[in-house]
C-alpha cells in the first residue's frame, strides 16, 4: 500500500521514521537489496488498511510487529541491509546464538540516544547493555574504573555487540590490540619486554573495574608477588613491618620498576630505566 | 551563548528539530580530592549540558549534537548525509583524567621531561649526608603544587558511502592527543627513589579504509589501515637530590651521578589489513573467514647505557646498535561455520588463531646500568618475544521444547610463547547452558563450564636463571583448573513488578603452584527489581555483592641454621553495591520528581601468615584492611511550563570515604627499605563530601 497509507493512522511513528536514517533510505532505493518503506519490516499492509481500524476485522492483525516475532525471523529483515561493517559477524556472534533480537536494543520509532544515529532504546549504550549484563553494572562502579559511568566511554567502545573476530566480541583481533589502540605508548615492540604484558593486558588489569589502583586485579605488591618472589628482594610476602617502606607504600613495586610495561632503554632490563 | 541561541531558535524549516538542556550550577567539596572530578568537569556557573539540532532538506540531512559544550569533558558530533549513499560523521571529544590536586614537588621542570633541583641543595646533601632528612624536610615544606592530570582529545572523521548496489566503502580517521602530567617514580637505588610529575605529550593517529562487496550469496570485506604513535617527550632527566658531582661509588647512600635518565615510551607504527569472506550456504548456514595481518614497527633511537659520564659505557658507541629496528608481525585467522543442520539444532563451528612472530634483530648488550650508579657487566640479549594462541570450538543449541533450549560448548585452546618457563600449553573447555521460559513471566538461564589447562613442559632452568624459586608457578602459564558458573532468574509479578537475579561464580585452582598464586575464587550476586506502583510512580532498585578470595604463597630463604620458611597471603576483596532509580509524576504531565542513588563499598582484607620454625623468624603480621565507600545521590524535580519547555532543580550529594595503607597519607619524604628518604608527590587519596545544586532548562523545538 506504500508508506503514505500508514501515515494516516500512525503519524507519530511515520514522522520519527522519516527523520531517521531509515527514512533517508527512501531516496536511494536503487542501492538497497529490498524495496524500502513501512512494509519492509511490517509486512504487506493491504489487509490491515482494508480493516480500516476495526480491531475485530480478520485483516487487522495481519500486520507484522517485529518485536513479537522470534528473534531469528525479526532479525532476518534487518540483516538484509545490515550485513556489513559492524554487522559482518552477526551470525556467529554470541548475541545471535542467544537469540537476541535487533529490536531488543534498537527502536525504529522512538530512539533515545542523544544523536539519534544509533537508534538505541536507552540514552546510553552502557545502560542498555546492563539490562542483561547486570554484573557489569557493579564492576563498572568499583573504585577504579574506566570512564563509563561518566559517559566518556561505553561498552561499545571495546565490544562490538553485533559480533567480531576477536575474543569476547572485542573490536580488535586480540586483547592487546584493543587496549593499545588507546594506550599506544604500551604498544612497543620494546627492547626489554615484560612477557605477561606482551601476551595479555588482562593478566594484570580488570578493564571493567576493580577496587585496586589502575584497575589492577590485585593490590600491589601482592599482584607482582604472584610471579616474583625472590629476585633480588626478600622472598617474604610483604607484611605489616613493610608498611613504612616503599615496598608497600604509594606505588609499591612500581615505585622503582616504573617501566613495568616494557622498556626501550638499554639499561631497562629490570624496568627501572 | 550557544545555549541561548539554541534555546531561542524558532524552527524556520518545517523539518528542523532539536533540543537543548542548559542551566547554572553551584557545587562545593570539603576536601580537594580528585575522585569527585576524576573523569569529568563539574561545571560552576552556566553550562550547556546537551544539545541537538537536526535538519532535513530533500535528500540532505544534518545533525549536530553534543554535551558538556565548552567544558573539559565536552563531546561534539556532526553528521551530514545525502540519502543513504553518502554519510559523513565528524566528532570531537575531550576525556579528562584528574589524578590529584594536592601533589607537591620541589623539582622545577626546566624543559619537557627535565627536572632540576637547586645546585646548592645537591651540594649540601652531598657534603652533609647525615643531615639529608632534615635538609629535605625543610625543602619539601615549601614544595610547589604540581598538576597531576591528563586530557585526551579525540578527533574523528568517518565517511561512509554506498555508491552502487552491492558495494560500500568507508574511510575513517582518528587522532588521539594526550597531554598533561602524571606521577612516575625513578631511582638511584632502593634508598634514593624520587617521584615526579612527568609530562605527557603523545599523539596517536589512525587511518583505516574498508571496502565491502556483495553479490548473490557472497560478501567480501577488505580493511587496510595504519596507526602511528608519537611521543613528544623522549626521556626523563632528573637531578639526584643527594649529589652535586658525579660518582660511581657503590658503598654509600649518597652515591651515583648528579642526574639520572630514563627512557619514555618509544614512537611506533602499526600497518594492518584484513580480508573477510562471508558465504551463505543452504539450510540457513553461513561461512565466514577472515585473514588479518599487521606489522608493528619501532625504531626509536636508543639512549646510552647511562647519563653518568664517569661510567665508560656512557657513550652511544658502547651500544651494539643505535636503535632496535623492532618488528612484530601478527597473523590472525578466523573461520566460522554457522548453521542449522536439524530443525531443532543450530550451532557454530569456529577456529581462531593469532600468531605473533618477531623480526626484531637480536642485539648482544654487554651489561647495564639500572640506576646510573655503576655498570654491571653481564652479557644479555634482547627479547625476541613471539607467541601464538589458537582456539577450536563448537557451540550447539538444541530446542528441547518451545520454551526451553540446551546449549553445549566444547573448546580446545593452544598457546605457545618464547622466553618463558612454559613455552606451550593446552586447555580443554567443556560447558553447557540451559535456558527455560516456562511462563511468559518466568525465565531461567543456568550455565557451567570447566576448563583444564596443562603445560607441555616446565623448564626450571628459566626460573633459576631469573633468580626465582623453582617451585614457583606463574598463574598466566601455570596448570589451571577453572570452573565458571552462572545463573539468571527473571520473574514478573503481574504487570507491575519485574525482578531479576544474577549469580556468577569463578574458581581457578593452580594445584601445582607450591609458590605463587594457588587459587582464586569469585562470587557475584546482583538482584534488581522494578515496581510500577501506579501509572505515575516507578521504583527501581538493586543490590549486588561481589567477593574475590585469593591465596598465594612464597618461601623465605633459609640461611645457616635457619631453615626456609613458607609464607602465605590470603586476600579478600569484597564489594557491596546498591542502587535505586525512582521516578514520580507528582502532578501528571506537569511535575516529575526523579531520584538516583548509588552506594558502593569495597573492603579489602590482607591476611599474612608464615610458618616460623625458629624463634628468630618473626610471625607475619596482617596489613591493615582497606575501605573504599561511596554514596552518590541526585534528586531532580522537573516542571513542564509549556509543551517543549521544562525547568528543573537538581540537588546532588557525593560522599567518599577511604582507608588505604598505600595511597592515603603519602608523605613528601617517606619510607624506603632502609630509611625515610624517598621523595613522593604526596598525592594521597582523601575522603570527601560534595554537594551540587543546579537550575536547569529543557527546551525542545
Give a written overview of the molecule.
The complex is a heterodimer of chains A (273) and B (701). Helix content of chain A is 28%, strand content 0%. With 273 residues, chain A is mostly helical. The termini of chain A are far apart. With 701 residues, chain B is mainly β. Chain B is 5% helix and 63% strand. Chain B is built from four helices and 36 strands. In chain B, a hairpin with a 2-residue loop joins strand 2 (45-57) and strand 3 (60-69). Chain B is globular. Classes of the chains: A mainly alpha (273), B mainly beta (701). At the A-B interface, helix 10, helix 12 and helix 13 of A face strand 2, strand 3, strand 4, strand 5 and strand 10 of B.
Query: Helical element count of chain B?
Result: 4
Strand/helix succession of chain A? HHHHHHHHHHHHH
The secondary structure category of chain A is mainly alpha
Radius of gyration of chain A: 26 Å
Distance N terminus to C terminus of chain A?
A: 73 Å
Helical proportion of chain A?
Answer: 25-40%
What would the principal axes of the Cα set say about the shape of chain A?
elongated
What quaternary form is this?
heterodimer
Morphology of chain B: globular
Q: What ranges of chain A have pLDDT less than 50 throughout 5 or more consecutive residues? A: none
Distance from N terminus to C terminus of chain B (CA atoms, Å) equals 17 Å
Specify the helix fraction band of chain B.
under 10%
Overall strand count of chain A = 0
List low-pLDDT spans of chain B.
Answer: 10-14
DSSP strand tally of chain B = 36
> Strand pairing plus helix content of chain B: what structural class?
mainly beta
Main sheet of chain B? 26 strands, antiparallel, barrel
- Gyration radius of chain B, rounded: 31 Å
